[in-house]
Amino acid sequence: MTPRILDQSSKLKDVLYEIRGAALVEADRLEADGHTILKLNTGNPAIFGFQAPHQIVRDMIESVPTAHGYSDSRGIMSARRAVVSRYEQVEGFPHVDPDDVYLGNGVSELITMTMQALLDEGDEVLIPAPDYPLWTAMTSLAGGTPVHYLCDPEDDWHPSLEDIRAKVTERTKAIVVINPNNPTGSVYTREVLEGIVEIAREHELLLLSDEIYDRILFDDAQHIPLATLAPEMLCLTFNGLSKTYRVAGYRSGWMVITGDKRRGEGFLQGIQLLASTRLCPNVPGQHAVQAALSGVQSIEALIAPTGRLHEQRDAAWEGLEAIPGVSCLRPQGALYAFPRLDPEAYEIRDDGKLVYDFLVAEHVLLVPGTGFNWPTPDHLRIVTLPEARVLSEAIERLGNFLASYTQ
């Protein structure tokens, strides 16, 4: 009798996540063999020596004896009120109350819930290219069709309004905006955001705004919350503690719903249903929210001109620009650089192979640009979390490797 073979679900055929893809498997194997690998593939502050703010840790510890039961499916009231207070301090942000806030096991869970509640088979979602690939993956897994609009590297990686407009169809339900942007480090101007809102208003699209890096800004960059430009439109704003507060492992994120909820009544009932079926978010992690949002904002020292994140951003950008045939936008926000390898200088047909070969040769793990749904194999993403000295050395090794590399 032929053994029954269990294959993966067909729903996963279009789900990719190269940030933790095949190259990471090889990196883990090399580590198991005793090699030291510099992993520049994930924005995980803890592994690069960033400590969680002490008041967050203290509140988590003190809450543990009473945090062993389920909470409200939306999340504990004190945390949701803290989120409300955060946005009350943002000029022009629409009114919200605690029932408009959902806490989640990271923003990732909330993205998944949103797509499952929103999409029928074949519904389309406009997603930037390059993107944070979870948006594309969860759109596909929910039965929808991701449609990628291009961001323009010649215009500081701002979204192309012309391309967005050209890709709206009668099946388009929503548009995703990632600002500050992962992977490019771009921070969008008011003009660009107003253009996106106008297209969404014209076609009655749901706005999905990923703002997890809204307080990681450099130089004179200013973040404009999308909801402030569309107070009457249904808009979901996603954020959390993973990056600004360096507690990625606490898996503590939130989603804020603003605008005319009557037009999305059924969709919002779907979100409530899904929130209930997961019972509740991780309760100890929820107790970190109030301490984080009401305490000293230690991120401000890190992004200042003499701060560690600022110095690392500069080291990465300067090192990449020094490599012949490599160019890079100076990141205005977030924790990444997205350099371009000039095809005239480097004939790269498979950027995944480039990343793998560089890992094996130099023991540094990057992510290929096509892993962020960029259409051509001429970009890489580099995490800028290591100390400046370590980043400079890794990028110098990349330049030396590229000088003799061929496919």
Care to describe what's here?
With 407 residues, this protein is an alpha/beta fold. The chain has 2 domains: 10-50 and 301-403, Aspartate Aminotransferase, domain 1 (Alpha-Beta Complex); 54-294, 3-Layer(aba) Sandwich (Aspartate Aminotransferase, domain 2), CATH 3.40.640. It is 36% helix and 15% strand. The strands form 4 sheets. It has an 8-stranded mixed β-sheet with strand order 2-9-8-7-6-3-4-5. A 3-stranded antiparallel β-sheet has the order 11-15-14. A two-stranded parallel sheet has the order 1-13. It is globular and about 60 Å long. It starts with 21 loop residues before the first helix and ends with a helix. 48% of the residues are buried.
* CATH fold node name of the largest domain: Aspartate Aminotransferase, domain 2
The major pleated sheet works out as: 8 strands, mixed
In the CATH hierarchy, what is the architecture of the largest domain at level 2? 3-Layer(aba) Sandwich
Structural class based on helices, strands and sheet pairing: alpha/beta
Supply the CATH class of the largest domain.
Answer: Alpha Beta
The strands making up the biggest β-sheet line up spatially as 2-9-8-7-6-3-4-5
CATH superfamily of the largest domain: Type I PLP-dependent aspartate aminotransferase-like (Major domain)
| H and E string | HEHHEHEHEEHEHEEEHHHHEEEHEEEH
Shape: globular
Q: What is the distance, rounded to the nearest whole angstrom, between the alpha carbons of the first and last residues? A: 45 Å
How much of the polypeptide forms β-strand, as a percent range? 15-25%
Mean pLDDT: 94
Assembly of the depicted chains: single chain
Return Rg in Å: 21 Å
